[in-house]
Design a protein that fits this description.
Elements: E1 2-9, E2 15-22, E3 32-33, E4 36-40, H1 44-62, E5 67-71, H2 92-108, E6 114-119, H3 121-127, E7 139-142, H4 148-162, E8 172-175, E9 178-181, H5 182-189, E10 202-207, H6 218-221, E11 226-230, H7 233-237, H8 248-261, E12 267-268, E13 276-281, E14 284-293, E15 298-305, E16 313-317, H9 330-338, E17 344-348, H10 370-383, E18 389-394, H11 396-408, E19 412-416, E20 431-432, E21 435-436, H12 445-455, H13 457-472, H14 479-488, E22 492-497, H15 499-507, H16 513-518, E23 523-527, H17 538-561
Parallel strand pairs: 4-5, 4-6, 6-7, 7-10, 10-11, 16-17, 16-18, 18-19, 19-22, 22-23
Antiparallel strand pairs: 1-2, 2-5, 3-12, 8-9, 13-14, 14-15, 15-17, 20-21
Helix pairs in contact: 1-8, 4-5, 10-11
Length: about 575
């Protein structure tokens, strides 16, 4: 199997991002496949959660001799947008046009057979684009929303449950990691899942237990369709991302249905994507290109100025459970903003996340370990050109970047919502039945011991008290010790903390550590009152989107114009 990623021209010339998965035969001089399956995802936080499952589905389909193209609709993922990120306007037409453009892109490869798998809100968009798609061999509607209104109700409910509804403002609908402006909201309210024509082969993937507020009638949409019942959706889509279980039985069922339904004879195809594109942004055009970073060839997208050489590099490391687009596409928008400060900005995926190569775990990454630190070091060295190196990171990515900074000695380090400050925290990642899940089904004695301590509350509290005491007297590493040692090496440090993170920060300070940090001209501590660790609320993201460019501008001025306090 081979994979290639790039952009193609979508609605109105907007670059749409696509990842092609090709069978082994595609390595021949003339690539071929039994057909192309277009995977249409969804929007907002659902897309962030679904990304890994869609990649696993692509791999399963390729194993059946099919080619697959995963696409980001306009304004989502790594695609361009018809509107600026904060500009009001109805985005639904660009999304439905994007579905049409994705199918046309698949046909442009020369494929004789094209099918479509759409997920969640993508099913509603697909149903409204059907009359413009032409002949499609097979449709799969995976866990469909019955209407745009049902989707919006779910967003509102999740937002209230998250506890951030008091911060909402402006017209529109907010959900965790998702913002729907008023114009798009009005358009979604008018959308219902359209019936599939009786002569269109189709498969419906439906929950065994109906989702609250999303009643669905298969007979009203596609009475002729094959139905796959799944009990995996709740543990995948209706839980926190740290606990999400990949719906592997459902994926296998979809791959089996498509393999049986589609032609058995391969036909030649040539994917037509570009590994580099120019994206329009409010500040002007931005050049973006695909990069394979370091010896493990981590997947990265490099954003650079169009008309001049970059004067420094920013490496964005997200958590080890989120791919490079970030919550609500925050890293994409931030990268395109920082380019206008003359910077090269690299957003990338850790090993076993997003579009980087798979590692050793069954259902997701391991993090807070040496492998994550090595990824930061490798990505930074592969991405950096002339000028300063700046590391920007979130959560577990902050920990990995903090540890990597000892080797990289970056010019500036920006840690967003860090929780862990110690050198050897317990490794974390997906678990199965309460045990560490790794490829060979075993776990190290150290991992098992740490797991036992975490599960045994009295032992955990005692261990934590001992650790805190050792930190306070300076017997083990502390937050102030690590930050000030970086400053002595020439690194400017910014730490952005919410309420929960501030509590952890204080736990890792030595006696007098807060005063030592406050006395430093090269450590900036930004504290805001919130409990949104995952950056899922709009108000917290907007705060950081406003502050980060200013922090970076100030730090770069210090670097180029001489020393000055932060």
């Amino acid at each position: 199997m081979s994979t290639t990623a790039g952009w193609f021209a979508g609605p109105g010339g907007v670059p749409m991002f696509a990842t092609w998965h090709l069978p082994a035969s595609a390595a021949a001089a003339v690539p071929s496949a039994r057909g192309v399956v277009v995977l249409v995802g969804t929007v907002g936080d659902e897309q962030l959660v679904a990304h890994r499952a869609l990649r696993i589905l692509a791999d399963a389909l390729v194993a059946e001799g099919l080619a697959v193209v995963r696409v980001d609709l306009p304004g989502t993922g790594d695609s361009g947008d018809v509107l600026a990120p904060s500009e009001p306007g109805d985005r639904v037409p660009s999304w439905t046009d994007g579905v049409v453009a994705a199918v046309e892109h698949a046909r442009s490869s020369g494929a004789e057979s094209v099918s479509v798998v759409a997920l969640r809100l993508g099913t509603v968009l697909l149903s409204h684009a059907l009359d413009r798609l032409g002949a499609v061999d097979h449709l799969v509607l995976w866990d469909p929303w019955p209407s745009g209104s049902a989707y919006l109700r779910r967003l509102r409910a999740l937002h209230v449950m998250s506890g951030f509804e008091q911060f909402s403002r402006d017209a529109g609908v907010e959900g965790p990691g998702t913002w729907i402006d008023a114009d798009t909201e009005a358009a979604l309210k008018s959308l219902r899942l359209q019936a599939v024509p009786a002569d269109q082969p189709a498969t419906l993937v439906l929950r065994e237990t109906e989702q609250a507020g999303a009643s669905f009638s298969a007979d009203a949409v596609a009475p002729h369709a094959d139905v796959v019942a799944t009990d995996e959706a709740e543990a995948w889509l209706d839980t926190v991302r740290l606990e999400a279980r990949m719906p592997r039985r459902t994926i296998a069922a979809i791959a089996e249905r498509l393999s049986k339904a589609l032609p058995h004879e391969p036909s030649p195809l040539v994917p037509m994507t570009r590994s580099e594109t120019v994206v329009a942004t409010p500040g002007g055009p931005v050049r973006e290109r695909i990069a394979a970073l370091g010896p493990r060839r981590l997947f990265g997208v490099v954003a650079e100025p169009v008309d001049r050489e970059a004067r420094g590099t920013v490496l964005i490391s997200d958590t080890a459970t989120t791919y490079h687009a970030g919550p609500a596409r925050m890293w994409v928008d931030l990268a395109r903003t920082l380019v206008h400060q003359g910077l090269r900005v690299v957003r990338y995926d850790f090993l076993d996340i997003g579009d980087s190569p798979n590692g050793t775990s069954l259902d997701g990454p391991r993090y807070y370990n040496d492998s994550c630190v090595r990824d930061v070091v490798d990505a930074a060295r592969a991405a950096q050109g002339d000028g300063p190196l700046l590391l920007l990171a979130h959560c577990s990515g902050s920990w990995a970047s903090l540890m990597a900074a000892r080797e990289l000695s970056p010019d500036a380090l920006y840690l967003l919502n860090p929780l862990i400050w110690g050198s050897h925290p317990p490794e974390m990642g997906p678990t199965v039945s309460g045990t560490v899940a790794v490829a060979d089904g075993t776990a190290s004695l150290q991992s098992r011991a740490r797991h036992w301590v975490r599960e045994n509350q009295p032992v955990r509290r005692s261990a934590q008290a001992v650790r805190n005491s050792l930190v306070r007297v300076g017997a083990v590493g502390s937050a102030d010790g690590r930050l000030l040692s970086l400053v002595r090496g020439g690194t400017r440090v910014t730490v952005a903390l919410g309420t929960v993170e501030l509590e952890q920060y204080h736990r890792f300070l030595r006696l007098g550590g807060e005063q030592r940090i406050a006395a430093s001209d090269h450590v900036r501590v930004d504290v805001t009152v919130h409990t949104d660790h995952a950056l899922k609320s709009r108000i917290v993201r907007e705060h950081l989107m406003h502050e980060i460019p200013q922090w970076i501008a100030t730090d770069l001025e210090s670097l180029w114009m001489g020393e000055r306090p932060l």
